[in-house]
Amino acid sequence: MCLPASQKPCEKNMFKAGTDTSTIIVEWALAEMLKNPTIFKRMQSEMDTVIGQDRLLEESDILNLPYLQAVVKEALRLHPSTPLSLPHYSFESCEINGYHIPANTRLITNVWAIGRDPDAWDNPLEFDPDRFLPGGKAYNIEPHGNDFEFIPFGAGRRICPGKQTGILFFCSIFLGAVVHGFDWRLPDGEVIDMKETPGLVMPKTIPIKAFVTPRLASTAYPH
């Protein structure tokens, strides 16, 4: 379908925004798992049990991979690709919890800080996917805008329109595919640098450098 010229810049911006933010989340998740090989192996084990090693991950597999889903949620909590929400404005003055908010006030929500708030999360700086599994304190918390301690996509009427696509296709399927399909090894003496580059998005300052080795049957990979 050909869009009118006036719509093409918007289409380009939406595509770019979804690609950039999703790849950032996947890289952060990989970095955390390379720091914690037990998590990496546990995720591979789950996928080997559900999928096997004769084919690649498919969309229909995601619902049967709770640990993969938990890893994605934990990456979104600890490393939201957009650390500050888009600006919101109060068109009229109001009072919230005893605070007077003047009209035309600009509000920017610190999503990064909320995900690391010790009043909301146990051991908030620890990468622990188990918190999102049955028995974990965050088991019923979802990133859909209803649980305000976990809003990587924002909340309310201006929640990110690509939320579901980002979680399913870019984060879950992309991350699952590269972990299921390959073994990852850091170069000898290499240490994962977890520094962040602040900005509109928050990528790793130093990208991951690792060796990858196919781990599935050769017939599983496209030729």
From TrEMBL:
A GO molecular function held by the record: oxidoreductase activity, acting on paired donors, with incorporation or reduction of molecular oxygen
Pfam families: p450
Keywords assigned by UniProt, alphabetized: Heme, Iron, Metal-binding, Monooxygenase, NADP, Oxidoreductase
The protein's required cofactors: heme
Xref: PROSITE patterns: CYTOCHROME_P450 (PS00086)
Domain of life: Eukaryota
Binding of heme, residues: 160
Family stated for the protein in its record: Belongs to the cytochrome P450 family.
UniProt protein name: Flavonoid 3',5'-hydroxylase-like isoform X1
Organism listed in the record: Dioscorea cayennensis subsp. rotundata (White Guinea yam)
Lineage of the species this protein comes from: Eukaryota, Viridiplantae, Streptophyta, Embryophyta, Tracheophyta
